[in-house]
Amino acid sequence: MSTWELLEKVRKEKPLVHHITNWVTIYDCANIVKSFGASPVMAHAKEEVADMASIASSLVLNIGTLTSELIESMKLAACAANKKGIPVILDVCGAGATPFRDSKVREILKSAKVNIIKGNASEIARVAGMGVKTKGVDSGSVDADLSVMASELAAEKSCTVVITGKEDIISDSSRVYRVSNGADMMGAIVGTGCMAASVIGAFAAVEKDLARASASALVCFGIAAEIASGISMGTGSFKNDLFDCVYNLNREQVETREKLA
Amino acid sequence: MSTWELLEKVRKEKPLVHHITNWVTIYDCANIVKSFGASPVMAHAKEEVADMASIASSLVLNIGTLTSELIESMKLAACAANKKGIPVILDVCGAGATPFRDSKVREILKSAKVNIIKGNASEIARVAGMGVKTKGVDSGSVDADLSVMASELAAEKSCTVVITGKEDIISDSSRVYRVSNGADMMGAIVGTGCMAASVIGAFAAVEKDLARASASALVCFGIAAEIASGISMGTGSFKNDLFDCVYNLNREQVETREKLA
Amino acid sequence: MSTWELLEKVRKEKPLVHHITNWVTIYDCANIVKSFGASPVMAHAKEEVADMASIASSLVLNIGTLTSELIESMKLAACAANKKGIPVILDVCGAGATPFRDSKVREILKSAKVNIIKGNASEIARVAGMGVKTKGVDSGSVDADLSVMASELAAEKSCTVVITGKEDIISDSSRVYRVSNGADMMGAIVGTGCMAASVIGAFAAVEKDLARASASALVCFGIAAEIASGISMGTGSFKNDLFDCVYNLNREQVETREKLA
Fold this sequence. Notes:
Oligomer: homotrimer
Number of domains of chain A: 1
Order of helices and strands of chain A: HEHEHEHEHEHHEEEHHHH
CATH superfamily of chain A: Ribokinase
Largest interface: A-B, 32 and 33 residues
CATH class of chain A: Alpha Beta
Low-confidence stretches of chain A: none
Shape of chain A: globular
Radius of gyration of chain A: 16 Å
């Protein structure tokens, strides 16, 4: 299916995307999923996460403001999703910043099957066991061939790996997609990384080929950002314009602007 | 008092509206209450919720991202509000989605007096004991006469019941109000349901007739949404325009657009 | 260094500002820090706060939605920051509203060195031991000479004290700065107080003279608010315009509008 067809499918099926995410961008994640026409739900109590994940069409985990309790809920939700065959997306937000984050990412990956691991270059390098250091959640440059890193990690974990950046790299070990859509303003605001994982969650809910779903998600998100970037006046208006542009994204925009290789 | 007079009263008295709410729309709830001229305060520590509720003019509870601990804080706050005669509003956000939510709603309703129960049709049906299933927080259609359902639940719980939807139904068992203000865009963004409960909280703080307060709150919120809907470009700008339109709501807009039966 | 030079330094060095803050305005705090060109990170797990604070350039604590657990994390982070000589900013948000808040503020101040204490007049009066009562987080008038109150508390705690209001008062006991920049709209929206502390965190990360850093931070924030206030249509657009104006703040705006005495 084409990127446009996948976007139409998201809008038509309105899949429920269950999030256990961070308290900074939880608002952005809900709004972007809703702007794409899907239905976000956030729930993190250990008593209900398995039930909620079971009725969802995808599960998005984000460790941005993790606690030990939240990680336990993530494991329960991921195991429930695994049983139902619901795709699990893990945003390794801030991996490498503290030993606690690294150890909790390993715990999640051991406890359940994660279908898509998503991060920027330095975060993914950390998960892949490379000796990089993340400063907060904003850095990302890594001295490595990112497509090789993505493919090797994808092969090792039998999953899809998404590295976001100026060029997004997506690999499920057999294929590598490269998405060049996007805008510099995405790096000037808070939340684009987290929102990208949520958008991937919406697309993964309607397309079994998770590398393809991820690539199409990032194409749509990137195109909306390009259009928003052309009209916004700064960091405040850019985020609003981004939601508007996602909501209004049309066939012509997607088909003429798509930069997917 | 007329809807306009109630709105003026909110703006003049600036009541303190204590929230124990969810982490997704906590930001929206605070901003909408503030845009209406009231004063939001969010506090959920078990050690202080009774004290905070006691100095507030209304208490808004929302189970959107409930945990067992948060529910305990809600009970403590509600009991403190009860003692002071401060109205308690419960948004049964996501009721029916998981057994945990249903059981916690029952716990709250047993532990303290809730003065206004608010939800969409499927959530209220669930609280009323009907066998519906909520998918996330966005669904709402129920095969039942909503005004009968609202009145019966209101009578059973000796409270006011608010069912939000294309037409909002409000009943305190003796009367039924119907509010037809609002805009389709309200369903396209995250947070309108939660904000509606917060707005009801602001109006319930200044008017003892809680059904009337709820109806007027939804009229004002709906009118602002209608005006915002006419100027917004999508999901991002709609929410901002909504805050602007609430902030600027004037007598002529309220009196000529009110659709309250 | 001039205010403009300090702003340029923030934008160039992009300091990491670690927050342990509240769930209402966490989104605003992250976005304002990012709009100023610095790099916000939010992390509150007791297992990682010391590590995160240690790699940051400043630490901003805000008790808006405090819990006992969160306060423990704040103490751990503050002690780690102390060891590294990283400035610690404490926003005593809502101090005076409940005994719990007052006691937790005292606990933090005993457990670690706080370099900048920030609040509105009634909050600071409470911390200074004066018998005022805060209603929620919005009030602020106090019957006292604010510059004396700031200087005395600064001397007692060997720190910088910032009292925000129509005129901001900053004192490190040896000097008093007064900032008259700002706009009435700042009081009409949620989050300006919390954002002010975050902005102070960004400037304190690049300037050792913390009173001067705080004053320059509030000048820049206030000027951006003035410009935003001139173009915004209400509470929704004002916040967006504020982020845009912060992002676009230029030398001429800062130098011609600065009201610092």
